[in-house]
Structures are given as structure tokens and as C-alpha cells.
Specification:
This protein is α+β, with helices and mostly antiparallel strands. About 30% of the residues lie in helices and about 30% in strands. The chain contains 2 helices and 4 strands. Helix 1 packs across helix 2.
Length: about 100
């Protein structure tokens, strides 16, 4: 999965939206309990919420993380860049259990 861009519907991918932060945090921690890697994706104003979720989840689960920051141009007539962030949380092998 390294080097790939997260797409909707991919397993272990959390797209941050307008729901409360705790919802996304719970989802990320649950996915980390089931697998070794989770990708958190957000666009626009929600980038800060995604960072908050990633930092809290990394502290709670003792995970390593990798951040990819990008810009998307939405709409051919507008041509305005929209910030996009993708954060990969990876649970270390032999690390402490999540739960």
C-alpha cells in the first residue's frame, strides 16, 4: 500500500468529515486493533481535525506515522487548490496491545 493514494471504500481507510472527533478516533483505534495499518484522509478545513485524530490515536496506541500533504484542483472552471492530507498510522511489530 506504500506510495498509493487512498480511495473511498478501501479497507482500513478513515475519511474525516463533519462528525465529532471522538467518532473518528474510535474508528481509527478499532481498525488498529484489527490490523497493523490505518490511513486517515481529509480535505480542506478538515485537515486540522484529521491531524488531531492521528495524534491522539498515535499516543493511545503507540503507533508510528507517515504524513503525505497534497493539493487537489477541484473544478476546471474554478481551478482553486484544496489542501489534502493523508496520514498513515502503523502499529509497530511487538508493540503494546490496543484496547
Amino acid at each position: 500500500m506504500k506510495g498509493e493514494v487512498a480511495r473511498p471504500g478501501q479497507a482500513n481507510t478513515v475519511f474525516v468529515g463533519r462528525k465529532p472527533t471522538a467518532i473518528y478516533l474510535a474508528k481509527v483505534i478499532t481498525l488498529l486493533a484489527e490490523s497493523d495499518e490505518v490511513v486517515i484522509v481529509a480535505r480542506g478545513r478538515l485537515v486540522l481535525k484529521a491531524i488531531s485524530v492521528a495524534v491522539r490515536a498515535a499516543k493511545a496506541t503507540n503507533c508510528d506515522y507517515q504524513v503525505l500533504i497534497d493539493e487537489e484542483v477541484l473544478g476546471a472552471e474554478v481551478g482553486r487548490p484544496i489542501p489534502r492530507i493523508e496520514i498513515r498510522l502503523v502499529r509497530p511489530v511487538g508493540g503494546r496491545e490496543v484496547g
